[in-house]
Amino acid sequence: MRKIVLFVLTLSLAFLQHSHAQDYVVFRKHDPKKDPNLNPYINSRINPDSNMMINPSYNWNLNPLHSNDVNPSRNNAINPMNNHDLNPQVNEVLNPVFMKSLLPANPSWNGLYLFNGENDIFGYVSVATQNVMICFDNQGTWNGYFVKGNNSMYNFFTVTGIWTGMFLCFDNSSGYNLFDKNGKWTGMHIK
Predict the structure, then answer these.
(1) Domain that holds residue 84
(2) Which parts of the chain register pLDDT below 50?
(3) Fewer CB within 10 Å, N- or C-terminus of the chain?
């Protein structure tokens, strides 16, 4: 009986180690501390302060303050309060309460990571559809979602569908940079 218990315990520990190793391998593909190509503070090509093409202060096609097409207050097609196909409160396929696969705690989760200015994990992002990405804090709590404004940017909404004014811009390489409602880069980025 002892041998069976010891075997089961050993097998369980080996599985847990393999599972954590597998998680790390997935995360490593996103880690800007390990890969300088993903780090906007090293790679000037993906840093909006160094590359005007990905900076909404210079490229107004990316800036909802200067382009009505990407401003959800002026374009009902990209406003989840008017377009229920983009609203997780109405569309269960987008809602992580119903779609457990969108939760970062789900063992099959495969998403993106939100990093702060020090390249530490600040949250998680699940790609629900090509037009909506669900955002979670670093504890895995749903705190909002991103809605595609055009091919290069997403607007950030609260869980209840209120536009925060914040938005993501594609870095033309590996992820997105997060900008505040004034169009200034927050230093945060998604990989």
Answers:
(1) 36-190
(2) 3-26
(3) N
CA atoms within 13 A on the CB side of 20: 5
- Cα–Cα distance measured from residue 138 to residue 125, given in angstroms and rounded to the nearest whole number: 10
Domain identity same for 49 and 75 = yes
Burial group, residue 151, by CB count within 10 angstroms (0-12, 13-18, 19+): exposed
Which backbone phi and psi does 174 adopt, to 5 degrees? -130, -5
**What confidence score (pLDDT) does residue 16 get?**
37
Dist. CA 108–CA 123, nearest whole Å: 17
Q: Are residues 92 and 155 in the same domain?
A: yes
Q: Are residues 57 and 3 in the same domain?
A: no
Surface-to-core class of residue 129, CB atoms within 10 Å of its CB (0-12 exposed, 13-18 middle, 19+ buried): middle
Q: Please state the pTM of the whole predicted model.
A: 0.85
Q: How far is CA 147 from the centre of its chain?
A: 11
